[in-house]
UniProtKB/TrEMBL annotation:
Belongs to the disease resistance NB-LRR family. One of its GO terms (biological process) is plant-type hypersensitive response. CDD domains: RX-CC_like. The keyword Ion transport does not apply. One of its GO terms (molecular function) is ADP binding. Residues 20-104 form the Disease resistance N-terminal domain. Coiled coil: none annotated. Residues 440-510 form the Disease resistance protein winged helix domain. Keywords: Coiled coil, Leucine-rich repeat, Nucleotide-binding, Plant defense, Repeat. Residues 179-351 form the NB-ARC domain. This is Uncharacterized protein.
């Protein structure tokens, strides 16, 4: 694919537009001629690569399975990677600031760099020669854009596709999907005059074609229609061929051939179909539709004649399924485990009576079925292969241990990889590299939206659109597109309904990793199938067994992500010495106490993650990392940032805090981080958590106009007005954590202006007058509100009830009164309510008609609440209740006399004060 070229072309364009000669000044005047020639040559190379990319985009869909083309494409990819190395080395050298501390150091630096600059001309010449040879090879082996030759066509006609076999599947072999088949049958038989368009969508291999075939062949359904047709579109359908195939199925083939069908153009073919269907009740299946464009002309061909006709579409694309009439959409899901087991046994033990798994194979059969994660295609294919293997434990164990290898190399498992690869091959260049990156995470890993977005941006995989849209927002669009293509599954959403975490199906991940390794994109070490790290690997994810990896022996790495937390610090320090052109360094949870020395020499670094480590200090030499975009120090021991951090003007996300109280029930649950420099230089900052306030700093904050999220501690009333004025200069601020300096500090917010786009507010500290500030009435977009230690004397619920968009509400020792009242109609969107450590609270009144969307209720440390609130019985949507450190009398009544109040809640959990992390840990997921 052309995604490698896509990334390299973007890097070339960015590098050549930075005015390097002006930036390095006169210190390296000797290299000026080299730089001038280099930039000229690179512009020519950029042009050649652009043409190569356009050619590959145009021809690749016609060359699937063409070994000569694949070998040539591999050569193109090598050249692209070589250009990337040159460009990154170029960026590396131009970013280095000469050491001016002494004459000898400066001269040594100049001589050393001059030698490096001198290598460029020969490297560029080699690339130019290789590009010339690529053109010659393309011509020599006839790799060109044109129609498929006859042998390829013959091969296509002679081979069964997975759709063919799914269509031919006997109904007795179908397991699960009974609800889907019943719904589909009902829709096809219902008496509705207007034409109905029905869509069935889901990832490849889920059985969309199989269940559609089961109803299409149903005799009762067939008799309900005057005529029928089934066509498979695929990714490279020809419109005229498709229309002829539909006509051949609808009309007697001999009469259609005699009517000159083969010479008709598209419009005439559509007219033939329109004429034939004009007065007929028809059923047409369009299997495997990849884009909406196909429907644009078919919509005209399939006339709306009020005869009750039906059109069924199967697709992997959510946007295609949106074509369906109203709610006539079925989203296919993976099989439940019991159904998976039944289907597997039907295939694997078809020779035995009742398809029973032998006792000696149960454990390995279970592992294989679990690995398939409910994907019918994988279950059927693997089960069929195992059906003629010996029923010996060692044989099955060996097969399971080698499953990754089998998926990549065993022709009998080609179906799995070919079906899943269709989705990958259909990805545009800008998405494909992003998706390959997702495969570097461990199996069953929940990929966080904000994490993967930052990694993509750091690697240069996200385009900058320049219309006021941030790259983070573009990355989120990429993620949504991958979910709409059924390649990623959303596993968790935040309070605003945005996807928070994603999951990649195990087998999709296996197939994607095979591609990532083949294309030298990246490797997941310790993944089971990977025993060594190739020298060409650009990205390395180490998941386990790191200690057995003695040396990386590669300076080509762009991403190094460590998931293995058992390696000693000495190994990490040693292996990092081979890094040079790294852009991403993720050592989250690593067993280190100091930053590896080499880090501050990695001038191309964009992303550094040292969160959850024992690192205590960030060295002043971090100032060299001028390209750094993300510095993540959450849950580390860093409590002070050096003055030099302000030199990192490209920094977009700075996360640094020490957590003292993981349950977040105390005012000082976070340590406050001291920021020594002038923060106004960091004009690109979008997120900053958390820093210690002072009057000088709060005044500087007004310069950070790109800020989206801010956590600020140790706030005093004496400069609250200045702070708030700075916050109003941040038009995009949507998340704010504001903590008072101590228990005695009283914050007066009465005279402050509202922040119009604020969605999350965590306010910790005593409020003036013991009342909810009137300012809160203007927070119309707030979805998450947490108030700690507020010292409120009046019931705050009525003052917050106007927040109609509120989804999460958490009150921690915020109210000193005895009663909270929730009236009918209040908080219509609230999903989570947390009431924590309000020691005088003895009554919670909940009227019928309030909290109509509540799913989770947490009561913690309410020591004076003895009776279960009667109104909980009205909370019909409540499905989780967490109780922590509650009085014995409350728990006794919950289990006894008040049990009827909570009998509708499926999950009730009771914890002691020390064995729960209940609270608001989700406020840290920023």
């Amino acid at each position: 694919m052309a995604d490698a070229l896509f990334v390299v072309l973007r890097k070339v364009a960015l590098s050549l537009g930075e005015g390097v000669l002006e930036r390095i000044g006169t210190e390296l005047a000797e290299v000026a001629p080299i730089l001038t020639d280099f930039e000229h040559s690179m512009k020519q190379i950029e042009g050649e690569l652009s043409i190569l990319k356009a050619f590959i985009d145009q021809v690749s869909t016609h060359k699937d399975g063409d070994k000569a083309f694949d070998a040539w494409l591999d050569q193109v990819r090598d050249v692209a990677l070589e250009v990337e190395d040159i460009i990154d080395e170029y960026a590396y050298l131009t970013a280095q600031a000469p050491d001016t501390s002494s004459f000898f150091k400066r001269k040594f630096h100049q001589i050393k760099n001059f030698a490096a600059w001198q290598k460029f001309p020969s490297q560029v010449s080699q690339v130019e020669a290789r590009i010339q040879r690529l053109t010659e090879m393309r011509n020599r082996y006839g790799i060109s854009l044109g129609e498929l030759d006859k042998s390829n066509k013959l091969q296509q006609y002679n081979q069964f596709s997975t759709s063919d076999f799914a269509y031919l599947t006997d109904n007795s072999e179908i397991v699960g999907n009974t609800d889907e088949i019943a719904r589909l049958t009902h829709w096809l038989l219902e008496e509705k005059q207007d034409r109905t368009l029905i869509a069935i969508f889901g990832m490849g291999g889920l059985g969309k074609t199989t269940i559609t075939s089961s109803v299409y062949k149903n005799q009762k359904i067939r008799r309900n229609f005057d005529c029928r047709a089934w066509v498979t579109l695929s990714q490279t359908y020809q419109a005229e061929e498709l229309l002829r195939e539909i006509i051949n199925q609808l009309i007697d083939q001999r009469s259609s051939m005699a009517s000159g069908l083969m010479t008709m153009n598209r419009m005439r073919l559509i007219e033939v179909i329109q004429s034939y269907l004009q007065d007929k009740k028809y059923m047409i299946v369009l299997d495997d539709v990849w884009d909406k464009d196909a429907w644009l002309f078919l919509n005209y061909a399939f006339v709306r004649n009020n005869c009750g006709s039906k059109v069924l579409i199967t697709t992997r694309q959510k946007d295609v399924s949106s074509l369906a009439t109203g709610s006539y959409v079925i989203e296919m899901k993976t099989l439940k485990y019991a159904e998976s087991w039944e289907l597997f046994c039907k295939k694997a033990f078809c020779a035995s009576k009742d398809n029973i798994c032998p006792d000696n194979l149960i454990s390995w059969a279970n592992k294989i079925v679990t690995k398939c994660q409910g994907l019918p295609l994988a279950i059927v294919t693997i089960g069929s292969i195992l059906s003629y293997r010996e029923l010996e434990e060692q044989v099955w164990k060996f097969f399971y241990d080698q499953l990754s290898w089998h998926i990549a190399n065993n022709p009998e498992l080609n179906w799995i990889s070919s079906v899943l690869n269709l989705s990958l091959n259909n990805l545009p260049s800008y998405l494909r590299s992003c998706f390959l990156y997702c495969s570097l995470f461990p199996e069953d890993y929940k990929i966080k939206r904000k994490l993967i977005s930052k990694l993509w941006i750091a690697e240069g995989l996200v385009e900058e659109r320049g219309d006021g849209t941030t790259m983070e927002e573009v990355a989120e669009c990429y993620l949504m597109e991958l979910t709409q293509r059924s390649l990623l599954q959303v596993t968790e959403k935040n309070a605003c309904g945005r996807a928070r975490t994603f999951l990649m199906h195990d087998l999709v991940r296996e197939v994607t990793l095979i591609l990532a390794k083949k294309e030298k994109f990246g490797i997941a070490y310790g993944n089971g199938g990977t025993a060594q790290v190739a020298h060409e690997a650009r990205r390395l994810s180490i998941q386990r067994g790191a200690k057995s990896l003695n040396s990386l022996a590669s300076s080509r790495l762009r991403s190094f992500i460590l998931f293995d937390t058992e390696v000693p610090s000495s190994w990490i320090y040693d292996v990092s010495s081979s890094f040079r052109l790294l852009r991403v360094l993720c050592l989250r949870f690593a067993n280190i106490e100091q930053v590896p020395c080499v880090v501050t020499e990695l001038y191309n670094l964009r992303y550094v993650d040292l969160s959850h480590t024992k690192v205590k200090k960030i060295p002043a030499s971090f100032s060299k990392l001028v390209n750094l975009q993300v510095l993540d120090l959450r849950f580390s021991y860093v409590d002070e940032l050096p003055l030099e951090i302000t030199m990192l003007t490209n920094l977009r996300h700075l996360h640094v805090f020490v957590v003292h109280d993981v349950q977040q029930r105390s005012l000082n649950c976070f340590g406050s981080t001291k920021f020594l420099g002038n923060i106004c230089h960091l004009k690109n900052l979008q997120a900053l958590y958390t820093i210690s306030a002072n009057k000088h700093l709060v005044l500087q904050l007004e310069n950070l106009t790109q800020m989206r999220g801010l956590g600020i501690m140790k706030v005093q009333q004496s400069y609250i007005a200045e702070l708030w004025n700075s916050l109003t200069m941040m038009p995009n601020l949507s998340r704010l954590l504001l903590f008072a300096s101590d228990m005695d500090e009283i914050l007066n917010l009465k005279m402050l202006r509202a922040l119009p786009n604020l969605k999350l507010l965590w306010l910790a500290g005593k409020l003036d007058g013991g009342m909810v500030p009137s300012l809160f009435s203007k927070f119309e977009k707030i979805t998450q509100l947490k108030m700690d230690w507020s010292g409120l004397n009046e019931d705050p619920i009525s003052s917050l009830s106007h927040m109609l968009n509120l989804v999460n509400l958490c009150l921690v020792r915020a109210y000193d009164g005895q009663q909270l009242t929730f009236c009918a109609g209040w908080f219509p969107k609230l999903i989570t309510l947390q009431l924590i450590d309000m020691e005088h609270l003895d009554l919670i009144e909940i009227e019928d008609g309030t909290l109509m969307s509540l799913h989770t209720l947490e009561l913690t440390g309410l020591r004076n609440l003895k009776a279960v609130p009667e109104g909980i019985k009205y909370l019909r949507t409540l499905d989780q209740m967490f109780l922590t450190d509650m009085p014995n009398e409350f728990i006794e009544r919950l289990l006894g006399s008040d049990k009827h109040i909570v009998q509708h809640i499926p999950d009730i959990h009771n914890f002691g004060s020390s064995d729960s992390q209940a609270g608001t840990i989700h406020f840290l997921s920023m």
